[in-house]
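Contributing new records

If you add data, match the layout below exactly. Sequence lines come first and carry their own label; structure lines follow with theirs. Keep one chain per record. Anything else will be rejected by the validation script.
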Amino acid sequence: MTIRYTQPMRDVPSEERPRERLLRYGAEALATHELIAILLRTGTTKRHVLGVAEDLLAQLGGLRGVATAGVEELSRVEGVGRTKAIEICAAVELGKRIGTLTEEARPTIRGPDDVVHLLMPELRYLKQEELRAVLLDRRHRVIHVAKISRGSLTESISHPRDIFRAAIERNSAAVIVVHNHPSGDPTPSPEDVAATRRLVEAGELVGIPVLDHVIIGDGRYVSLNERGLV
């Protein structure tokens, strides 16, 4: 049953308020709308902050909708407004960056699961296809994740100059190509497969092997290497 929050926050028992619950039980124990309520801080004269957070999730289609919404879209929800929308966007971006590479981390890539752990938080919610090149040293440690292109994946892979230029500049020993499917379904298209094979051939020519092409969806992925296509 969905709870509709209409009473003032002062009438909510203190042990049920999000901030107090976080202090007592930790952030992981809170529901999504409670975490958003902490960011919002205040509600309206008609709805207290938990209700506004619930409305936000309902109107934008859940957490994914909140994560991909811009300031204007967020601020149209009653009780949010422009300032709170900016703060939500900032919190979402921080969450994405926490899950992505830092220069100090230098993780080792042992398989596609490591690639997905590295880039899923950043790529899974994007509304356009984006192409990344994970550049590796001889021990398969990550040197850098290069942003190659946005919006036209097949053309980017078919003309791989930017990928190998980035790899050569960083003195990379190998490359893993990663891109997202905004639909959430990571199933490779025939164009994905054909373009990847051309990219593998180009890597053989320049002496920088392409180890895998990982396609990221919403919580799912496909490794073309695991499917025997690389």
